[in-house]
Structure formats: structure tokens, C-alpha cells
Amino acid sequence: MRLPVLALALILPLAAGAQTADLVSPTAFRVCADPANLPMSGKDKPGFENEIAALFAKELGLPLEVTWFPMGPGFIRKTLRAGLCDVVIGYAQGDELVQNTNHYYTSVYVLVTRSDDPLAKVETLADPALQGHRIGIVAGTPPATHLAQNGLMALAKPYPLIVDRRVQDPAGDMLADLQSGEIDAAVLWGPIGGPLTKGNAALTVTPLLRETASPKLFYRITMGVRPSDQDWKRELNSLIRRNQDRIDAILAKAGVPLVDDQGTALKEVAP
Fold first, then answer.
1. Where is the Solute-binding protein family 3/N-terminal domain (predicted)?
2. pLDDT tens by residue, 96-116
3. Which of 19, 53, 115, 216 gets the most CB atoms within 10 Å of its CB?
4. To which H or E segment does residue 12 belong?
5. Element (H, E) at 51
6. Containing H/E element for 22?
7. What pLDDT is recorded for position 10?
8. What is the pTM of this model?
């Protein structure tokens, strides 16, 4: 007996969902990550997302298995949705490609300047002091809109957003240009700019907490799982909640600027 088309339409998604949910490994904590996305993840040198993954694997009593794949178009489809892993450690809240866990940190874009430059006192992209200066910006990121709104794009130097970081390093290039004088300031995502400049007294990092114009410059970061893996998401949420202080410590040690959930003040992290 052939099932009606409507019945098939109802049954097939349920079967597919059950099959996907079964992909969560019971024998390993399986993570997908970019092999050259430092300071967040790296194959040859671990980033702070690798450290958090190791923490969770230890808490679960499972070995950590990492599938390395360059972050870019098709990353989720070819890794998480293909069943090669069960979680992506860092994913912005609200992204529709994944099911988000609860966020485990909030951070903000930063302005990086030379410490001996008067621009080191600037706290907002609307500051008139930035006029006439060349600012490095990653093309297509939210602060690029702020530069345009404040008439700063004419002199801005753009750096690419979507690259294979095994062969290109936009953030590193931007900071090198800043130190050489090619640009006068750099705007970077805090979890990149903070760690890359940590310990460098020649550079000053200012979290952009005082921006009032849209788009917002602070974002909550979650872990990404498959939409069908609701039990797995709840287990990860529990791990995040129980280990929040340890996660904060890893991020703070790396140099990530942590802010409150409203993006208005730096978050205090216990030593």
C-alpha cells in the first residue's frame, strides 16, 4: 500500500531528524574548527576555543576529536551537518545555519592604536579626532558601517573578511600596517584584536563600548549544533553554566575583552 503524499511529507522530516540526532558521538567530544584561525583555533598552536573544547571533553570524560576545515562558505554544510562533528565552539548568537546553545561570552569590537599617538584616547568611532586619519577595517563587518556614517571610509584601508587563513592573515596584516605607520588605527573584533595585541605595550586596545549608532558592535557567542540535537544542546548548556568561571578565565587569559550582556561595560573576571 502506497502512503499518501501528505503522509510522506509528515513522516520523512521526522525520520531525517532522528537520523541526524543519532550522529552525536557517545565515545568522543567531536569538534569542527578552522586549522588556522588564531587566536581562536589552530591545528599547530591551540587557540582559546581549543582550550574550551579540551575543558568540555575532560568534563564529559571523553577524548577530544577535532575535524579541521577552513572556515568559509560551506563550512557548516561540509562539517557539522555532514556528521563529521557535533559542535562548533564559537558561533554568533542568532545565526540560522546552526542551533545556538546559550551564549558563553559576550565581546565587542575594539579600536587599536599606537600607544604614543593621541588617537589612543579615542573611545568612539564618532570622535572628530579620527577625521583625516587612515583606519584599517575588515570589509563587510559592522564597524565598517560606522566608518561610513562618520565620513571615514574615503581614507580607510580595507582588509578581506572571507579568506583561507592558512595562506592569508588579514588581522595580522592590519596590525603590522598599524605599527609601521601605514594606517593610523585598526578596528578589529575583540576576540581577535585583544589576544593578538596582548603584552604589546606599543599598542593600545580600546573596547568600543560607547557606540550608540546602529549596527551594534557587541555580540554574544554561543556554540553551534545541529537543529535536531536538542538534548545535546541542553547538555552543552549545562556544561556552560557549570563551567562559566573556568571559561571566563580561559578567555581573560587569552586577552579577550569580555563585556556584560548589554555591551555597555567590561565584565569583571575573578583571578
1. 28-254
2. 889 999 999 999 999 999 999
3. 53
4. helix 5-21
5. helix 48-60
6. none
7. 37
8. 0.89
SS3 47: coil
pLDDT band at 93 (very low <50, low <70, confident <90, very high): confident
How many percent of the chain have pLDDT more than 90? 83
Neighbours of 245 (CB within 10 A): 9
Cell of 115: 600607544
Contact at 8 Å (CB) between 167 and 174?
no
174 contacts 136 by C-beta, under 8 angstroms: yes
Task: Please tell me the distance from the alpha carbon of residue 229 to that of residue 250, in angstroms, as a whole number.
Answer: 27
Q: Round to whole Å and give the CA distance between 100 and 220.
A: 11
The CATH number corresponding to 25-105+218-254 among 3.40.190.10, 1.20.1560.10, 3.60.40.10, 3.40.50.1100 equals 3.40.190.10
Q: Which CATH number fits domain 106-207: 3.30.930.10, 3.40.190.10, 3.30.1360.70, 3.60.20.40?
A: 3.40.190.10
C-alpha cell at 47: 587557540
